């Protein structure tokens, strides 16, 4: 599987937290900030770091921005710079653009510009957002400890109609499906004979490694296929 490449513009508290988590998850991350001291402090922790003005189209173009899978505008309180940067990322052809908003009005402006996802840091902490960006099928993520998590995943079409017994997640992957969100409501502690339906949501608990293996071997593989 190809290593995902992210560019994070703005290495303040939120941007640096998100960038470091993406690196921990095996992604390549280019960090950009105007502040040379900030960039220097992150240089050994990220894949690449650059001191640059994100509103300078030539600078962004020279960095090959359009080749990144996702561009994240994590600029602090300067709404004008945030909006201009988002516009440039879209115009330069970045596949997915995510931007931090500091107000509802700021968020609406970003949405009107075609930003793929607007993040409000008060509601979306950096670690949770990182997991959701790396795994498109991941709807929500809760870290129980450094080793264990609870996640919500869409049921892919390949599992439609299968019983939990046929999936056998506990034996095959060491993780458990503890609830299902269905059209008829939430099913807590489903039985082995309960069937999965495409579009339903699985609530899974397990070690981070086992959940990642489940995603890679069942959900993501079939999504790519």
TrEMBL record:
Organism listed in the record: Paenibacillus brasilensis
Domain RCK N-terminal span(s) in chain numbering: 3-119
InterPro entries in alphabetical order: NAD(P)-bd_dom_sf, RCK_C, RCK_C_sf, RCK_N, Trk_Ktr_HKT_K-transport
Top-level division of the source organism's lineage: Bacteria
Gene3D superfamilies: NAD(P)-binding Rossmann-like Domain, Regulator of K+ conductance, C-terminal domain
Domain RCK C-terminal: 136-220
Protein name, entry field: Trk system potassium uptake protein TrkA
Annotated Pfam families: TrkA_C, TrkA_N
Lineage: Bacteria, Bacillati, Bacillota, Bacilli, Bacillales
